[in-house]
Amino acid sequence: MITQQRKTNKWYTTILTLTILIPIVYVLYLLLMVQNENQSIEELLNTQPIYVVLLLVSFINPIWGHFLNQIPKEARVKKGRGDRFLSLMLISQVVVGNLIMAFLVFITKRKLPHTSNTQPLTAFEKTVASILLVLSLFSGFVLLKLTL
């Protein structure tokens, strides 16, 4: 059981780390683009609206990470709050096309230890997850429209 918990913690920590790193790396990428094209960030975002949507998507991830981090370790089990929140995050990541993060979320869900009692999300967690899912669906729709 302890080995299983360590594996779970490793995957869970990886997701938490990536939720923080994704927006930082994306902002650095945008700054490099601005520097290479000799234009302001405002000009770049106005001429390429897809970057605005991707910026929104990148800033949704730290919110997912924050709420995943707030779930106590004992609730990070199958059919627990962690599992349910990871399921919603998986949907969000697939909708916006973040397949690497979706894969990591899927692996983390599979590695969660089993429990006999179920733990539903709190009303606040459901509300936040719903808002994040709506933002993800909106972003995914806009990304689809911009790329077609």
TrEMBL record:
The chain crosses the membrane at residues 12-32, 44-64, 85-107, 127-146. The keyword Membrane applies. This is DUF1648 domain-containing protein. Keywords: Membrane, Transmembrane, Transmembrane helix. It comes from the Bacteria.
